[in-house]
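I am writing to request your help with a piece of structural work I have in hand. I set the record out below, with my sincere thanks for your time.
___
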Amino acid sequence: MRLLTDNWVAKIMSVLIALLLWIALVDEPEMIETVTVPVEYRNLASVLYLSPDAPNRVQLQVRGPRGRLNDVSPERTNIVLDLAAMQTASARTFAVQEGIINLPSNVTLMRAMPSQVRVKLERKLYKYLPVTVAFEVPLPPNLRVSVSSVTPASIQVVGPESRVELATSLSTEPIILTDVNLSKPIRVSVLLGDAELSIVGSAQVTVKLQTVQQP
């Protein structure tokens, strides 16, 4: 009995506040809102890559009380696609429905645009690519430059199979000949022309140059 009488004022106030909030939520008119939310891909197998053309955002049209719709935003809401069942290079279509969207309570999905997400997983491919040396142009007058050696001569990259197969070489960042000591080896970084590829190991090479002054 004492549990019911202790702090009875605070308990009554809590019940009243909860009741008022419930009434406000029930009486609040429903609205329709369109928001663009991110797509999150989970449980991707380590030997696979998500195809670069996989969508990263989907537009949702949702309905609910105004107060609850305030909680539907790119920061709080996302679409979660579980790729655990895709253990080999393959493709699958996911229907965008409420079960894979973390919507607030009392908010319902009216439609998604697009209504389906096509996911393609590619095999992870490694490949060694030869390194070419680039120079800042124009070269100093009367100076001919040739590459004596590049170490290492090739660098390994990794990425989605379709993108790795298209890659044929890597280029160094442009060397500004007037800014370096041409009699010493030059340490320079290698540039990736495709953002879907990654370099395995060091992204730097050592370049030795030969120069000839021409009349």
User: Anything to note?
Assistant: Helices lie at 2-5, 8-27, 66-69, 161-166.
